[in-house]
Amino acid sequence: MTGLLPGILTGLDLTGVFFFAVSGCLLAARRGFDIVGSVLLGSLAGLGGGIVRDLILDQGIPNAFAEPVYLVPPLLAAGLVHFHVVRVERHRRSLLAFDAAGLALFCVTGTSTALEAGMGPVPATLLGVATAVGGGVLRDVVANEVPQLFNPRGVYAVPALLGAGTTTLLREAGWLSIPSGAAVAVAVFALRLLSLRFGWRVPLAARRPRDWPPGTGPGRR
Amino acid sequence: MTGLLPGILTGLDLTGVFFFAVSGCLLAARRGFDIVGSVLLGSLAGLGGGIVRDLILDQGIPNAFAEPVYLVPPLLAAGLVHFHVVRVERHRRSLLAFDAAGLALFCVTGTSTALEAGMGPVPATLLGVATAVGGGVLRDVVANEVPQLFNPRGVYAVPALLGAGTTTLLREAGWLSIPSGAAVAVAVFALRLLSLRFGWRVPLAARRPRDWPPGTGPGRR
Amino acid sequence: MTGLLPGILTGLDLTGVFFFAVSGCLLAARRGFDIVGSVLLGSLAGLGGGIVRDLILDQGIPNAFAEPVYLVPPLLAAGLVHFHVVRVERHRRSLLAFDAAGLALFCVTGTSTALEAGMGPVPATLLGVATAVGGGVLRDVVANEVPQLFNPRGVYAVPALLGAGTTTLLREAGWLSIPSGAAVAVAVFALRLLSLRFGWRVPLAARRPRDWPPGTGPGRR
């Protein structure tokens, strides 16, 4: 049973932080926040999931505060968005793509970190999912929006759960490596983007009874 | 000085998780979220208060992550709401009833858990209140609604505080048992529902000065 | 290298809690919450930043729960707002002034607490900023508003960062004392209020391209 090397894990983690940070900075731009708000929303999106994970793992000061290198991705992201190196659009397409990339990397690195910390397979998988979706939820909640996580168009938590579960299975089988972890992340990313492209949906929280006309009942506020 | 047996405490805690989870799934149905969003919002409502409590108690990994049995109530709740076994209504009545049941159980179990962990009476009572109201606040905030906690119609935190305080007094007197704890929970539940039924109110945050005409001043956004 | 005496630090911390608590109670009044909601929103505003700081420092039960004296400022604040001892206005001026006072004190006490706990200069400065802005963000998010932190009119995080950084430098130089810490807090307070008075701004998250007509593009939702 082997895991990812710590250095590699940190590198992947920082890359995931960067992708989520860009999604936060793009949301800041859409909402008309200033550059400082952009750095802060990018930091929350990029570092929030990992801070929650580290608080739950209860192993001292979270990495995001203990290691100043974690500041670099949000600052870089805010700069790239400010100067339009990353395209700032009216529609959400690039925001959702960066969000998907962060989701894909974090379900792998979050699950790995939890397994390295000695968590069992089921808790580690769940904490991996929480790490992956947490930053995006914090980003949207703090910007006073309904989280993407709850958008019924496309699937969000399902690819994260599949990615976290596969990471756990690979780790248990001794097959978790840089290429296999990267393959899982790529698959999660593709699944998320395809679900957005083709509008895949899962059933609603409550089945619409047959005798309700369309446009009525729960789900219409 | 005796407390509730750990097995009983876990059973009551899981029941409270279930009630809050149903409230989360009902909110997901009202908002048109899908079944995955329902499981997640139910999990946040059911497990959020306990996770915050366990983070503050600082005793290792929170129960909700360490013990996979805590996943059962949210999954069950999402299923019951999806198939309309729990009635999904346009109005909030059933949501508020399940929320009240969770509040009632959690102010007893949250306070007990804090006392078992060695907290003093005042901190344990406050942490019991925070556990009881925390899941509902997280549920509403993440769904981008003003928390029920702040709805001036009916009382919410007051019954939770009375329940948590009574639990602490019973524990100090050596009278905390399954029947006495259940009686406290039933009283809190009844008080919350009666306050909603009869529209009981406490004074507003700021007294309305006499010279303000109705419908003006703070409180009208 | 000396820090502030623990007793002084607690006194300043409680004063900061009081200022933020008043801002929370004023927001509760604006939104028409009741007196219990006022106490709770005041507590969240006043104690939230410190609880997050203590969770991240991972040193046992947060002060706000361990020491019941931390309940006094929110109760006092709710009383002062209820009886209009603190002026409750339609506009946000007094809310923003109390918020600024809390921000000013917390960037000094938060940074000091983190340094006392043995954190390095950069992490301690960042945690000081997080402590200073955290309570206000929680207050606004729970009341379902876009946080003041993201209001592009005036600067908010910048004075907090300058205050936290200066506190760290003073501590490293052995010059941190009651007068020097108080001077830093007064400077932060003045900078925040001046920025509101004169509408100082920093650049937006995304530069507005030249070929966009005014009132279009990101930032207009």
TrEMBL record, chains A, B, C:
Q: Which InterPro entries match?
A: Gly_transporter
Membrane protein topology class: Multi-pass membrane protein
Task: Tell me the leader sequence span.
Answer: none
Residues passing through the membrane, by range: 6-28, 35-56, 68-88, 95-115, 176-200
Q: At the top level of its lineage, which domain of life is listed?
A: Bacteria
Keywords (alphabetical) are: Cell membrane, Membrane, Transmembrane, Transmembrane helix
The text of the family note is: Belongs to the UPF0126 family.
What is the protein named?
UPF0126 membrane protein
